[in-house]
Design brief:
Elements: H1 2-9, E1 24-33, E2 36-50, E3 57-64, E4 67-74, E5 80-87
Length: about 110
């Protein structure tokens, strides 16, 4: 078990900000289009965190043009440039899957002061 941790430790990102479920986060992803590379931001509510260590993933949900869009990001992937916390959310659950059924103001998460 220590051998696996030692091998994966070098690929993990050390400078991750503290982020919790309910926070609004901006994930910047490196996108390759043909021979060009660019960075694209995806901002939304963090509705789930799964696994741990090198396999850690976060699920970010946002509403664009009235349609809900969710993306699952592997946190320690080399294509992830940065993860920034925009605002803190006050929630009482570990997974916010109930937001999928909500529309408009009902889908908002209160801000932690």
């Amino acid at each position: 078990m220590d051998l696996i941790n030692a091998l994966t430790q070098q690929y993990m990102k050390p400078e991750l900000p503290p982020m919790n479920v309910g926070d609004t986060v901006r994930v910047t992803v490196r996108i390759k289009e043909g021979n060009r590379e660019r960075n694209q931001a995806f901002e939304g509510t963090l509705i789930a965190k799964k696994h741990g260590g090198i396999n850690e993933t976060i699920t970010v949900r946002r509403i664009s043009y009235g349609v809900g869009c969710e993306k699952v990001f592997p946190v320690h992937s080399p294509t992830i440039v940065s993860v920034d916390t925009v605002r803190k959310g006050k929630v009482r659950r570990a997974k916010l899957y109930y937001l999928r059924d909500r529309v408009g103001k009902a889908a908002k998460v209160r801000e932690k002061l």
